Amino acid sequence: MLIYPEIDPVFLQIGPLKIHWYGVMYLIGFGLAWWLGLRRAQRPNAIIVPTQMSDLVFYGALGVVLGGRLGYVLFYDLPNYIATPWAIFKVWQGGMSFHGGFLGVLIAMWLYARQIKRRFFEVTDFIAPLVPLGLAAGRIGNFINGELWGRPTDLPWGMVFPHVDMIPRHPSQLYQAALEGVMLFIILWIFSQRPRPTMAISALFLMGYGTFRFLAEFVRTPDAHLGFIAFNWMTTGQLLSLPMIIIGFIMMSLAYRYQTH
User: Do the record's keywords include Coiled coil (predicted)?
Assistant: First the structure.
């Protein structure tokens, strides 16, 4: 049995200014995306050139932050934010939705693709391998915040979160960092090493993230104010991930049926 180390969520404090670990992890995620993007942009026939990476990351960051926050409000805690609307700005306390951030990034990439006169799926295929390590950083931020803990377990690596209770639980934040982050990155990075039909890399991202998130939800405690929302076992995260898997399969089939590079 492990004990959660109760990490101070504040990374650095200078007078009244507090820099939270959660924000630092987002900066690390954007930095990794920029660095990996530069590597992809140096490949022959890359649709993005290195000088465009700063704008690409800027658009993506806006999509992540605005979409992630609005998605959390709409999907997970709308009544609370209607009662206290100013709380929407307290992003350092957590409360970001991947699925909202994902939709925000899609909108941002659509706008960016129009700006550089590229097809939408060309741009999403380029950025898909850049995303997972940022997701891993975000999940580590969840762990540092001591939020999104797992369900009870008797496995030897079960972790007690004293601010919750004294029951050993799955460190589901770390599971998600490993699956949605590191594992998905490896899969996408290897898959994208060779030329693929347009839309195939984006499709694999949808299938991979949706599958890993769907599985991880089985050991993650559902949000207390939502609980199980279908069949007495399905969570909001699973309900939102299932369409990603289905759409990903359809996109992959279409990509290889009508191959374009």
Answer: no
* Distance separating alpha carbons of residues 254 and 250, to the nearest angstrom: 6
Q: How many CA atoms lie within 13 A of 174 on its CB side?
A: 9
Helices (H) and strands (E) in the chain, counts: 10, 5
Per DSSP, 180 falls in state I
| pLDDT top residue among 34 and 222 | 34
pLDDT at 172: 97
pLDDT of residue 66: 87
- First-to-last CA distance in the chain? 51
Q: Which two tokens stand for residue 106?
A: 């899609």
Please tell me whether 139 is known to bind a ligand.
Answer: yes
Of the CA atoms within 13 Å of residue 84, those in its CB half-sphere come to 6
Those residues with Cβ within 8 angstroms of residue 119's Cβ, 6 or more apart along the chain or in another chain:
113, 198
CA dist 134 and 63 (Å) reads 14
| Strand stretches in the chain, DSSP E | 2-3, 10-14, 17-20, 159-160, 168-169
Q: What pLDDT, in 10s, does the model give residues 26-71?
A: 999 999 999 999 999 999 889 999 999 999 999 999 999 888 888 7
- Contact (Cβ atoms closer than 8 angstroms) between residue 132 and residue 180: yes
**Contact at 8 Å (CB) between 169 and 1?**
no
